[in-house]
Fold this sequence. Notes:
Helices cover 36% and strands 15% of the residues. By secondary structure, it is of the alpha/beta class. The chain folds into two domains: 237 residues, Alpha/Beta hydrolase fold, catalytic domain (Rossmann fold); 144 residues, no CATH class. The chain has a ten-stranded mixed sheet with strand order 1-2-3-5-4-6-7-8-9-10, sandwiched between helices. Strand 1 and strand 2 form a beta hairpin. Helix 4 packs across helix 5. The N terminus and C terminus are likely disordered.
Amino acid sequence: MRILMALTAGVLVAPLISITAHASVRWRPCESLPLECTTVSVPLDYGKPHGPKIGIAVSRKKATKAKRGVLLLNPGGPGDAGLEEPKFVSDRSTLAESYDLIGFDPRGTGRSAPVTCGLTESQRQPWKVFPYPAANGDITENIAYARQIAKQCFEHDGRMLPHITTANTARDMDRIRIALGERKISYLGYSYGTYLGAVYTTLFPHRADRFLLDSAVDSGGIWRTAFQSWGRGIEESFDHFAQWAGGDVRAAYSALAAKLGNPFRSQVRTMLYSEKGYPALLELLRTGRLAPAKPKSATSSSVWWAIACNEGKWPRDPGQYQRDVLASREPYPIANGLSANIWPCTFWPVSPVEPVKVGKAHAKVLVLQNTQDPATPLSGAVAMSSALGARLVVADQGGHGVYLYTDHPVTAVATDFLLEGAEGFAQRPDSGQIGQQSQGTTQE
């Protein structure tokens, strides 16, 4: 049965709420985390603000010195929980001296009304969640999987899933701001979190202060075009690894892929996410010994599909994906059709709701990007920075994630930006290299 749902039109403007609402926030020690935690109540459906509510789990690490504001954190996904992020950031930077670091589990994840789609362990295997076709490019099994997942998700979580959107998560962020009693927020978001940050600056332009967006998606290609870019990103990242490794690693990859199949392809893709994984990847190509596959989280997978399917336009003809997969295999053999394959979105029973067109930001925004990124290629960061009118800083290295994930010198630019704002960043060159050894470039 096809379920037709949509959010009420005209809900892009959040209702005005008194800044004194923060008086109701009660912090308590987090379970198993050296942080404070609370819960912020938000509408399930912002089109019905007085209707059912859900709780958003929020964490905090208070500034240890003079506080300049709050820094909300998002690790990406979509589908990743973020309650632990303040500890991650404080362990790796000095930002906790000047900011209250604020983590939160986005709606549908972690402790914030989680959804699971009733997924079995078999359904959560990474090469199924991220749909690799058969060795010959056939997607018959992928079609059956996508159809079953769409049906199963709405049988299990049909009340919640239609309301899991980036716009609603941005609205939840603003409710967190209000609960904290802050007039503005600063923000650090990775990967999908760059789009979430861009949507926040669009919906709440005068509530955004300093936004650092790391490893950006193309905000104009949500979501099928963004996923299709993985083919190029994976290929370029493997080339970067091959230059590091030397020798004919492509031949080794092809031989092992033919022998071990999609579990091998999936594991290699994951190992390209950091240059620190290159030695282990080289060892895998030498030995062919796969690590045991770890199933994906039911919650992260479910929210991934909800965001992608609720927001993007997807062809309804499975044959279109079969043609696209076959066409993509020659230019992007490492991905083997992954980037063009079918998702549950083809059979998703909800039409896309309120797509957000990202516009020029009133906030100070800095986009940070690696040159070879398997998940968010450089072209996406160029598009994102152009849409926002933001500065782009590029690190000449491989991997997904720059700030606090690598030791590249351009991370100092990002820290200066968050701590000193426009004045600190203006001391850097407007173009060319940022320091001779950093190999970073800035682009307008």
